[in-house]
Design goal:
about 200 residues; mainly alpha; 8 helices
């Protein structure tokens, strides 16, 4: 399989996985009467929610920049593993493909975890228990390694708190998509070497 076909296969796989996650979430929202439509309708309006999402992406991007430069061994190990994974799957992807994939991941994962799972679990338990359990599920869905599980769980907590504070998921979708876009581009192109690897 040549690089172009490999890239197309990786993109198809990502679309199937994200699309499947969205389909499962929509069925679960319907079965459990989760108020997904309300979470997709920001009380402050979509432009304000998108602006909040852009602002919310900034701390994540600062963490990404720091993690790309640190020599701290646990982060270096995670960075190497994730970089190999990203390069193997999306190394040949164009910038528009990376943007599309980032938007797809932001929409599908936020609808599934913060739009359906978190409120469903919160209704059965307590809002903060729902937040914690949905964040752990998000971490498990991204468990490339034990350390990355905890980083993804922390990101899930961040997106979940953003959802609780704003009462909508559009801000979390925007923050998630922006982070994924920058992270995918950075990890595809970050130079190798002792500190950067």
């Amino acid at each position: 399989m040549d690089e172009a076909e490999s890239n197309r296969a990786a993109m198809r796989l990502a679309i199937y996985v994200e699309g499947g996650l969205l389909a499962i979430a929509l069925v679960a929202a319907w079965l459990f009467a989760t108020p997904l439509r309300a979470l997709l309708t920001p009380p402050s309006g979509t432009p304000i929610a998108l602006a909040i999402g852009v602002a919310a992406a900034l701390p994540l991007l600062l963490f990404l920049a720091a993690s790309l430069r640190t020599g701290w061994r646990p982060i270096v190990r995670v960075r190497r593993r994730v970089k190999r994974f990203v390069r193997a799957l999306f190394g040949g992807a164009s910038i528009p493909q990376v943007a599309g994939l980032s938007i797809l991941a932001g929409v599908c994962e936020e609808v599934a975890f913060r739009g359906v799972l978190q409120p469903m679990l919160a209704a059965w338990t307590h809002p903060y228990i729902g937040l914690l359990l949905a964040s752990l599920a998000f971490g498990l869905g991204h468990a490339v390694s034990r350390a990355y599980f905890w980083l993804a769980t922390a990101a899930g907590l961040y997106f979940g708190l953003l959802t609780l504070l704003t009462g909508e998921i559009v801000s979390a979708i925007a923050a998630h998509a922006i982070y994924d876009f920058v992270a995918l581009l950075a990890l595809r192109r970050w130079p190798t070497g002792s500190r950067a690897a």
